[in-house]
Amino acid sequence: MIKLPKRIFMVGAPGSRWSGIAQNIETIPGFNTSDRTEGRNYTHHSFSGHLGAYFGTGWETDTALTEENFDRPFKHTDGTRFLKSHEWAYQLDEIYEKFPNDWIMLVHRPDLACQAWWHEAGGFNIAYPDYRPYYKDSMNMLNEIIRMNNAMFAFAQKHKLVWHHISADWIEQQFGQRVEPTVKLPDTLVTVLKR
Fold first, then answer.
1. Domain extents for the chain?
2. Based on C-alpha coordinates, what's the Rg of the chain?
3. Which of 100, 104, 137 is nearest to 118 (CA)?
4. Are 22 and 82 in contact (CB under 8 A)?
5. Coil, helix or strand for 23?
6. How far is it, in rounded angstroms, from Cα 52 to Cα 47?
7. Tens digits of per-residue pLDDT, 88-118?
8. Which of 67, 75, 98, 186 has the lowest tally of Cβ within 10 angstroms?
9. How close are the terminal C-alpha atoms of the chain, in Å?
């Protein structure tokens, strides 16, 4: 039996399709999805693009690494919570030091694939969260995607993490329950740091 932590810091660049991965894993009993509200939903095509709170500069919940900030968007704090932020790619060392009992999950997709999917999913017209203030324009978005992916790779290499494709086997190995991913993502890799 795998004991899930209180929190999992989930990090992926915009367009990495990390939201869908989180939604699949959150179907496992014991996950807390009490951050989901009508105002925090964004749907595109046939996908539930965004469900629940996202942490970011200028957003409803910022990236401050405090218990109060982590708790703010949730109705209750029981169970395991995914705390999702693109920008935590730049705070991975600090998260690692401050929160030794929590896990860190990284999602990587190639830079240009991220940018293309992010635009396909709505780009700067995405209703939640609002990407315009921090990311400004398409060129800056690509630069941020590259920086985030590089930061995640550097952190993974430093901690000797192994990357995998998302699969039912991988989810079962990491989280203790078999969940079939709803979408096959051959260009997307995942890894989890546990302590």
1. 7-193
2. 15
3. 137
4. yes
5. helix
6. 14
7. 999 999 999 999 999 999 999 999 999 999 8
8. 186
9. 16
